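Next up, sample data:
>
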Amino acid sequence: MKLSRITSLASLFLAVILSAPAFAAPDARSALPGTINYVEGQVNIGSETLNADSVGTAMLSPGQTLDTGTGKAEILLTPGVFLRVDDNSSVRMISPGITNTQVQVDQGRAMVEVAEIHDQNNLRVSQSGVQTQLVKKGLYEFDADQQAILVFDGKAHVQDGDRTVSVGGGKMVALNTGAELKAHSFDKDYYKQSDLYQWSSLRNTYLGEANVNAASLYAVNGYYGPGWIGPGWYWSPVFGGFTFVPADGVLFSPFGCGFFSPFAVVRSPLFVRFGAPFHPGFVHFRPGFVGTVPVRPAVVSGRPGVVAEPPAFHGGAVRSAPPAFHSGAVHSAPPAFHSDSNGGFHGGSGGGSHASHPMGFHR
C-alpha cells in the first residue's frame, strides 16, 4: 500500500515536470520574421487594417507591403533585429527566412535595430535598386525619399551593381547623385532629433522593460526554468508584445538598453537608469557615461521589483557592483562591474557574449 502511494506520487510529480512548459506559456504562439510587434495610427498590409489586436498575430509575408499613413509599426526580423517603419512609409517583405532575411523600403523611412547578428545571417535592405547588407550589431536608417542610407552604429556593405562600399558608424551614403558611391560623415546628433529616431529609442526602452518581465518568467533560483527552450522572441504578458531574450549574459542594444537572459536577470548586475526618475525593475545602460550618477541606482534581486541600495560610489562613477545582499527579501551576488578612466563600464563573468539558436522564436 505504501509502495503504491509512493509510486502514485512519483508519477504525479513526473507528470508535472513534463507539463511545466505548458504552465509557463499557457497561450503560446510563435513569432517568425515578419511578425507585427507594435502598431500605432494608420497601418495597413494590403487591404487589411492593423490595430493593437494585430500585435503578435499579423504577419508581413513575402510579396506583401506594409503601408503607414499617420502611424508607425514595428516588425520582428531575426531574433534581436527590429524593423521600425515611420509615418507615410512603405516596406515590402522580400524574404522572411532565418538565414536569408530581405526587406525593401519603397517610400518614406525605416530604421533597423540590430541587437544580435551572426555570420550565418544574410540580413539585407533594398532601396532604389541598391542592396545593403547589415553585418554588425548597430542602428541603421533607410530614407527612400531623400535617397540616403545612414549608419549610426555598426557596419554595412552597400552594393550598387558591381560597386560595393563598406559603411561604418557615423557614415552615410547618398544614392542617385550621379557620383561614385561613397561613404561620408554625417551629424549624428542632428539626425537623433528626428521623430523616427526618438520613437525607436522609446520602443527600445519598452522592450528593455519587457525583457525583464519575460526573462524572469523562465528563471528559477538562478537557473533556466520550465518553458525555456533557448534564445529568441518571447512574449511579455505585461507589455503585450514580443521581446528579445538572449541565451546567456546580457546584450546591450545600440540605444543602450540591456536584453537579459533568465540567468542574468536573476543574478543581476547593477541596473542604472540615467537622467530619469527611479523605476524598479527598469534596465537601462548608457555606455561611456562620465560624471556623477544623477539618480539613485537599484540592484534587482532574483525577483523583479525587489531592490536594494548599493553601498559604494567612488569618484563620481560606479566602480563596482555591490557585494551580495542577504535578507529575507533580497539575495543577490552580481558579477563585478567597474568603470575605466573614461567612465565606461565593464562586466565581469556572465555579462557578455553568449551563444544563440537561430530558430529560437517563442511565446
Summary: The chain has two domains: 36-193, 221-347.
